[in-house]
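SAMPLE LOG
Freezer: B-3
Tube label: C17
Construct: single chain, 205 aa
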Amino acid sequence: MKRIAFFVEGQTEQIFVTHLLTEVLGKNNLSIISKHIVGGTNVPKRELIKKISIPRQARYMALIYDCGSDNRVKSVILENLQSLKDSGYEAIVGLRDLYPLPLEELPQLKKGLDFLPRELRKYTHTPYKILVAVREVETWFLAETHHYSRVNYRLTGPFIKRRLNFSPFEIDATTRAHPAEDLNNIYRLVGKSYTKKRWQVEKLM
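STRUCTURE (predicted):
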């Protein structure tokens, strides 16, 4: 069984990766272990298992780890690097947002995320990469224009543009400073809101 680990900054990204892998690899081919961190700072940090799905004929195993914030993604990967290698994981992928950093800091952020301390470089034969979602993961949701009609039939390009002076159907979503706020403003046009609650993110997928 091929094993890959994903470390993401929050619940929204964990749901996104779960759905993406299920669509690409197939539900019956994929075992998923979802974990998240609770505590830290003044409270002891603990790992909790959210969900385990293990089909009989699974060919792939994916660990999807909610690190709790963007600045924890790399540190949690480094904390788990040896145990993941020992457990047979063949690749490690991190996913975090660029927001709230400005776009011009993206190259420096990528450089810092790719750096490994000397004592951990012996694990570099296990592929390790942290991907940065420009702005926020909601950038992808904002750009996925097919979902607006599912939220409400009135959310067409012209309708949104008349009221908000931009249309997600016409713009490059990566140019928007705060896509989560844009989504919320769009939904509010029809009396709804974007809140990042699990049920709402699941519905977006």
